[in-house]
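Thread: Newbie trying to understand structure tokens

Hi all, I'm a second-year student working on a class project, and my supervisor (Dr. K.) asked me to get a predicted structure for one chain before our next meeting. I've only ever worked with sequences, so writing a 3D structure as a token string is new to me. If someone could post the tokens and maybe explain what I'm looking at, I'd be very grateful. Here's the chain:
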Amino acid sequence: MAIREALVARLRAEADKARASADETRKGATHEESRAENDKDTRGLEASYLARGQAMRVEELEEAITRVRVMPIPDLRKRPIGLGAVVDAVIDEDDERTFFLAPAGGGEKLDVDGAVIHVVTPASPVGRALVGRRADDELELKIAGRVRLYEILEVH
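---
Reply by user tm_fold:
Sure, no problem. This is what the structure looks like when written as tokens:
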């Protein structure tokens, strides 16, 4: 599925960038300029904490890539919306969007064959509202204090 591959590629690029940042920070944490000059100098310690946090981010992204790769893509045309669904919807009668419900990568906007795909997860307000719905369902969703009407056009 092209959407899944586009999301994996985006997550891979983010992981590669995070890995490079973690490597640079780790090198900086062990550099001689980071050595403490006195007992109150915490530059090296702070840099090592930052490097560990960045390494943890890389691990999270690698796990997200795996979750997206192994996610089954069921035929949801006649079943309720769940992971792997591609949902065409119109918001407030004039804003057409296509959503991809994935276990990770929420908030990403993917360009797949000229179409913009909005990635949502079941943990997001939109994703949570879509789960279990079907084509032709309507729902109201309050986001940032504003109520919006979503009409589900098609699920594929």
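A couple of things are worth pointing out once you decode it. The first strand starts at residue 86 and ends at 91. The CA atoms of residues 90 and 96 lie 4 Å apart. Feel free to ask follow-ups in this thread.
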